Amino acid sequence: MTITLTAFERSPDRGLGLARDTRVRWALEEVGQPYEVRLVSFKAMKEPAHLALHPFGQIPTYEEGELALFETGAIVFHLAQRHPGLLPKDDHARARAITWMFAALNTVEPPILDLVNVKIVEGDKPWAKDRLPLVQERIRNRLNQLAARLGDAEWLDGAFSAGDLMMVSVLLRLRPSGMLDEFPSLAAYVARGEARPAYQRAFAAQWAINAPEPQAS
Ligand code: GTB
């Protein structure tokens, strides 16, 4: 059955792979499932046809026959349950890998999104300069805790899993700020994720759509 994702017609990150379709593409590549992509404009995302798939008018969405999903956590979890490669067979190890997916989305991603909000969305507010260090401190706190747990391990809990896929995807969003480089073990962890052939294919697929046009000289 054909799998179809939606993605930005033109991602505001100009191909850095930070929009959330990349993590779904990565999961699909890890489990070896082919997929198609339907590109949507910001305007189309808020129109009824897309809102029927995504109540909040966002990307990505996932369609597979009669099934339509939104929320990258749910989509990656669906793929990881359906296909081997992203969750361990052992019950406890599987539950722990799922826990890391939730930790990435519920505990690590929110302060990182706050950084984007305070710098970009709320950047012109008079209180933004006071809020910024508070948000940065919250992120550093989380990253210190995460780095302490990772230690010198390759992945968060044994073999690479959907938990790592989600955590690496979330941490990548920090790279433009330079904060990831303050935590060399986490920067190396992210680099290991990016080096996976499945990530490389996912990145290349979104780059083919979003790369900046070459400038005429
Ligand atoms: N919780 C949802 C999920 O995980 O699926 C969040 C989905 C979401 O935020 N989608 C964003 C969206 O559709 C795109 S990824 N935004 C349009 C809107 O809400 O109107 C977020 C994103 C956007 C831009 C960059 N960037 O430029 O670097 C990175 C990530």
Walk me through what this model shows.
This protein is an alpha+beta fold. The protein contains nine helices and four strands. It has a four-stranded mixed sheet. The protein is globular.
**Mind describing the biggest β-sheet?**
4 strands, mixed
| Element string (H = helix, E = strand) | EHEHHEEHHHHHH
Low-confidence stretches: none
Spatial ordering of strands, largest sheet: 2-1-3-4
Nearest-integer average pLDDT: 96
Q: Per the principal axes of the C-alpha atoms, what is the gross shape?
A: globular
User: What's the N-to-C terminus distance?
Assistant: 46 Å
Query: How many beta-strand elements?
Result: 4
Structural class: alpha+beta
Hetero groups: S-(P-nitrobenzyl)glutathione
Count of individual helical segments: 9
Radius of gyration: 18 Å
Helix content: 55-70%
Strand content: 5-15%
Give a quick precis of the structure.
The chain has 217 residues and is an alpha+beta fold. The protein has helices at residues 21-30, 42-45, 48-51, 72-82, 91-121, 128-150, 162-172, 184-195, 197-210; strands at residues 3-8, 36-40, 61-64, 67-70.
What tags apply to this protein structure?
four-stranded mixed beta sheet, 217 residues, alpha+beta, single chain, 9 helices, binds S-(P-nitrobenzyl)glutathione
